[in-house]
Design brief:
The protein contains nine helices and no strands.
């Protein structure tokens, strides 16, 4: 494999206490189960999308790279699965409420070629890393560590960013279709998150409280939905910056 392969770069290991045998389950706040289910369902679909993109790779080296990246990114799913097992929660039951929304997002953003597949990986990995980082400071420490994307997310971002930039440099005409794809991905992400937020009220309240603007049990759910809307605006700002760095801004 080439020296550019980010999977071969050394990275400090995550604190994997969430999967240590014999430990007690984490204290789970209200909405915590739903938060883990949402993140894990996203991890599952992202793994499938990234791994399947290898069939479009222009070289065996790149095919091997995305296979390794997909396997590395699946680590967080396994950490969450281990924790849910300790909690006595069936993983499929925890993921099921989010399956339709996440699968619909995946279908709507199915890439047509190798370059779009890596562009999708870059944008989705960035959005999900921003989401976890934004919530982490006010989540219980164990939950925050469990949701940390880990080195694999940055390795995926690095590989995908270089791949897309090289593709644009080689063929500037691809910039237009990529920009349209990026905007469609953002719209689909916002739409599906809004649907989840309206339905999963415990999750929405936990997110709002983690942002420091959530409601109490006695106040209106509109406060929580407003906090979720503000978070989505922040995430879309980060999304726009990632596109702009590739010269794909509006």
């Amino acid at each position: 494999m080439s020296e550019q392969n980010p999977v071969n770069q050394s990275s400090a290991p995550l604190d994997d206490s969430s999967s240590q045998p014999g430990r007690a389950p984490l204290g789970m706040p209200a909405g915590g189960r739903e938060l883990l289910g949402f993140v894990a369902q996203g991890d599952l679909v992202d793994f499938e999308m990234l791994a399947s993109s290898g069939t479009m790779a222009p070289s065996l080296d790149e095919r091997l790279t995305v296979a390794e990246l997909a396997a590395a990114q699946f680590d967080r799913f396994e950490r969450i699965s281990d924790e849910l097992h300790l909690q006595g929660i069936a993983i499929d039951e925890c993921l099921e409420p989010f399956r339709e929304a996440v699968d619909s997002f995946a279908r709507a953003t199915q890439p047509a070629n190798w370059l779009m597949a890596q562009f999708r990986a870059l944008l989705v990995t960035g959005l999900r890393a921003d989401f976890s980082a934004r919530l982490a400071p006010k989540l219980p420490e164990g939950i925050a560590q469990l949701l940390a994307p880990g080195p694999a997310a940055w390795q995926t971002t690095d590989f995908a960013s270089r791949t897309v930039q090289n593709g644009i440099d080689a063929n500037p005409d691809i910039a237009g279709p990529l920009a349209l794809f990026g905007r469609r991905l953002a719209a689909e992400a916002v739409g599906q998150c809004q649907r989840i937020a309206a339905r999963e009220t415990d999750l929405t309240r936990l997110i709002a409280q983690s942002l420091g603007s959530g409601s109490t049990q006695d106040s209106s759910e509109l406060d929580d939905l407003g906090a979720m809307s503000a978070l989505l605006e922040e995430l879309m700002d980060g999304h726009a910056r990632r596109m702009a760095r590739l010269g794909l801004g509006v």
